[in-house]
Every structure is written in structure tokens, then in C-alpha cells.
Specification:
The chain is α/β, with parallel strands linked by helices. 42% of the residues lie in helices and 24% in strands. Helix 3 (59-70) packs across helix 4 (87-99). The relative contact order is 0.17. It binds flavin mononucleotide.
Length: 177
Amino acid sequence: MTKNIVTIGGSSSKNSINKILAEYAGELLKNAKLTKLDLNDFEMPLFSVDVEDEKGYSKGVLSLNEIFENTDGFIISLAEHNGAYSTAFKNAFDWLSRIEGKVWRNKPMLLLSTSPGIRGGKSVLEIALGKFPYMGANIVGSMSFPLFNENFKEGEIVNIELKEKLDVLVDKFEKAL
Ligand SMILES: Cc1cc2nc3c(=O)[nH]c(=O)nc-3n(C[C@H](O)[C@H](O)[C@H](O)COP(=O)(O)O)c2cc1C
């Protein structure tokens, strides 16, 4: 049966390399309907308990929460800003966690990160690997993808080792769905 998969780049950059990588990984699935999310499409204020008290949840938060509720799995690639989540991702994550603590609903997740640097966002990936399981993530595979601009060209992974590694993870993810 065709599965519904959400892809997310954990970034608000218009040309997010993480969005590109998450969508690329999604396209490798054999039988899936992809919902390619752009965090910019979900308006929400900067999280504060006071805004939450006074205004409740924005339409953007509610619709993102509903998408999470209805998907069969997640492919996420996290941008790394100063060794941690981007502000846009953390903000959405904080809002969502107030509606449902198990943000990831125990659904299969392929967790990626990339950056132009040699570590490929390893620090933010480690943070997420440590935290997401407590928030309902069923992480079936993870990978940091280094030197994005060297290893990904014209819509394709040009580093054979990295391509093979991602293929294995995508296959494992698809089997877990
Ligand atoms: C404020 C800021 C902090 C950054 N910190 C890191 C970092 O800690 N590690 C890293 O590998 N890249 C860092 N970068 C570079 C990002 O990896 C790069 O901008 C990347 O394109 C972000 O992913 P995105 O294109 O999906 O937004 C930083 C960029 C910005 C703007």
C-alpha cells in the first residue's frame, strides 16, 4: 500500500540544502506519496508561554500538527546553526510539543543532516538522536551528509559511498513503514 511520507528540511532558508536532501531521500522511496514541507509555509510566532496563554496556537502550528498526525513516517534533514537546531525548526518543534509531547507519534523516521562543512551537521544530528526518541521518534536510520556542495551536484549525489549509505537507510526506512 502506498504510504504517506512527510519530508522536512529543518531550516527556513529558501534554498535549504537540508530540504533538498530530505526530498531527494524521499524520492528514492519506491511506493510513497510525499508531502514536501517548507517550514516557511507554517506561520507561527516565536514560542513563549505568554503568547501561548494569550493567543493559543496559530493556524500554522495546528495545520503542521495535523500533518504530523496523519503521516505514516518522516524524513527529516536538520540544518545546523552553531551546533544546534535552526531557530525555525526549534520554534516549530517547541510549539508542536505543547500540543502533543510525542511529536513524532512513534512513526518511522529517517533522520539526516547536512551542511557545507566536513561534519555535515553531526552536532545537531547527535542532539536530535539524543532527544527525539523521548518525543515519540522511531528512528530507523540516521546519517550526516558532509560537504554538501561537493557531494551533491545537479540534483544527484555524486559521492558513491554516500549514495550507497543513503540507499541502504532508505530501504530500511521503507521496510519499517
Ligand atoms: C547562524 C549560522 C550558524 C551556522 N552554524 C553552523 C554550524 O554550527 N555547523 C555547520 O556545519 N554549519 C553551520 N552553518 C552553515 C550551515 O550549515 C549552512 O548555512 C547550511 O546551508 C544550512 O542548512 P540549510 O541550507 O538547510 O539552511 C551556520 C550557518 C548560519 C547562518
